[in-house]
Amino acid sequence: xxxxxxxxxxxxxxxxxxxxxxxxxxxxxxxxxxxxxxxxxxxxxxxxxxxxxxxxxxxxxxxxxxxxxxxxxxxxxxxxxxxxxxxxxxxxxxxxxxxxxxxxxxxxxxxxxxx
Length: 115
Known about the structure:
This protein is α+β, with helices and mostly antiparallel strands. The protein has one domain. 30% of the residues lie in helices and 23% in strands. The protein has a four-stranded antiparallel sheet with strand order 2-3-5-4, with helices on one face. Strands 1-6 form a two-stranded antiparallel ribbon. It starts with a helix and ends in a 9-residue tail after the last strand.
């Protein structure tokens, strides 16, 4: 946590989502209709440049601490359902090559196109 706080203090990371919004996202995905079958993959701010986890649908057991998540990509059977769920909770996201990306932190430089 000290290392993460240092990155924020030095302006190397800019927080986007707080723990409350992450909890709302997690709760929404757990309550998703079965036909949506939401999945996620994520990237830690401490991960090597090209690393992210593999796609996973187990939100209850496999989403660990969100404190260091740079981003989490989401997919579901319906992109409209997914975007509506995020908008209901005022969770900012971007579309990256057609995939929804929820940001925990951004880095200096060009910023995502927020939806």
